[in-house]
Amino acid sequence: MTEKKLASLGKAEEGKSGKLTMNQNSNTRSVSDIVQARARKFFSKKTLHQRLPITQWLPKYNLESLEGDMVAGLTVGLTVIPQGIAYALVAGLTPNYGLYSAFMGCFVYMFLGSCKDITIGPTAIMSIMTHEYSVDKNPDYAILLCFLSGIIIFAAAVCNLGFLITFISKPVIAGFTSAAAISIASSQLKGLFGLSYQSESVIEAFSKLFENIGDTRWQDLTLGLCSIVVLLLMRKLKDLKITKVQPDDSTYVRIGRKMLFLISVGRNAIVVIVAGIIAFAAKSDTFTLTGDIEAGLPAFKAPPFSTWDNGTEIYFSEMVSNVGAGIIIIPLISILESIAIASAFAGGKTIDATQEMYALGMCNILGAFVQSIPVTGSFSRTAVNSTSGVKTPAGGIVTGLLVVLALAFLTPYFKYIPKATLSAVIICAVIFMVEYETVRPIWKARQLDQIPLWGTFLTCLFWKLEFGILVGVGINLAILLYGVARPKVNVSTVLRKDESGPHYVLVEPRSGLFFPSVDHIRGQVTKAGVGPAESSVMVVVDCKHFTGIDYTATKGMKSLCQDFERRHQPLVFTNVTPGVERGLCSLIDDIVIARSSDQIDAAYKICQHLQLLNRYAVSSKHS
């Protein structure tokens, strides 16, 4: 009977708290009502502004916005043209595909983009990933990848799967970006030295470089190194005080400062133009040139769902099979880059990740119709766009039109661009992507985060980029799951009021009670019961950190209660939430739940009484 009294402590205040009941009078709505409510929400003004952001800023557009967008659009256009040509070479394609990729995203993002600073187009990382999965450098694979990436990104937005990006931590992103930058830079060394060889990894790139170092063309190397020096100096120019417009400057001084600023941010175009003029004036074999580029605008047509390989037609299913993991990896990296850039330039505002995914998906889908390779947000061009004073996403129209004009009228002259200069442009763009400055803050914040950082970096650098991300995410999940399966458990002894001995042993698990952690928590409670509690003192389990409980955990707690019952040692649960209580009581009949310190004291007194009864029973048995 005494045991029953102890077991009933958990139900002592049931009358005070009241029983949980279901509301039988809740109003039920028909299917038609639900459909109508959803339709009203979908076709509401709020949804229109949310899913078509141009409707928010276009009615407020003015001359000041036009001026800012014109200047920023022209500046970004002068940046993206040489970068697009260079990134096409990184992707293993002819230069025209880089330009095909540089304008459609600008147009689409103006309507669907929610961040005024972002520019969509070819990037270094997307180019090297395209090179990874474009079979035999066939542009049809790159275009199909662009289309499928857009479909997957758009579908992910529809399904609200943007939260999956949160499983890729900042250390993993830093490791991936840094390794990709080094890989891209190493792949451009052959162009810088005027060499011709194929390499698939960083080690192979340096190995082939040293093998062929004797064939270096000094003209290309000299031009390439000079281009790097000039690009770095011009990059620094925009940070000097002389380019900052002051309130008391005269009109001519303001124009002069802005011109210096434009020279700095348009450095890629300036260096490429000057190098092209030098190559045009020199003998035809002085420098290694880009060569003929297909002139004119791309035809607007459906992406290729089949291709030809040595006279054999490759159908869609086989193309998808050949691309392999690229169908998942490239959209993932594309979303990751774009969302990260949008967050960096949000200015403290909340980013609508779903809308950014809608915009990015459509940029890739429509881009595939103009023979684009996979695109995403560009950090370097977004920074240029922001510092140039862009006011709205309409700056993308100017950038896109500039690329279109270049394709229409300037492609015959692009063949004079030296490859060494393009290599210099790429190297100067990616060396600042190596995030060496994050190593120390990560170490200070949490030393354990160095493992996914270096695991991702080394795997990307010496194996493959896509495997590096998987390794990094795997390490992060392993660390996360280990913390779930092995939570910290604090054990302390609460003394009696007169401090004459232990009142009870308090066990406080620091995280939730679910199946991965139940064995560990059970072991720690048992250890506390046998050790500090000496198999006789009452043990109190503080459940304030338990947000829920599952079947496996409930079974584990039932076994724990049975272990304590066999030792005739009291076990009490306190600070139990209603959900956890329902789970525990569903399988454990005689569980003791104390809702207050008074009930813990009451349980302690009953325990003392039980111990006296047990001692009396043992002494009677021996006598």
From TrEMBL:
Subcellular localization: Membrane
Transmembrane portions of the chain: 70-90, 97-121, 141-165, 260-282, 323-345, 357-374, 394-414, 421-439, 451-482
GO cellular component: a single term: membrane
Alphabetically ordered keywords of this record: Membrane, Transmembrane, Transmembrane helix
Annotated region (Disordered), positions in chain: 1-25
GO biological processes: transmembrane transport
Membrane topology of the entry: Multi-pass membrane protein
Domain STAS residue range list: 505-582
Xref: Gene3D superfamilies: STAS domain
Compositional bias annotation for Basic and acidic residues: 1-17
InterPro entries per the UniProt record, alphabetical: SLC26A/SulP_dom (IPR011547), SLC26A/SulP_fam (IPR001902), STAS_dom (IPR002645), STAS_dom_sf (IPR036513)
Source domain of life: Eukaryota
Domain spans labelled SLC26A/SulP transporter: 66-450
Matches recorded under CDD domains: STAS_SulP_like_sulfate_transporter (cd07042)
Main location: membrane
Protein name in UniProt: Sodium-independent sulfate anion transporter
Organism expressing this protein natively: Scylla paramamosain
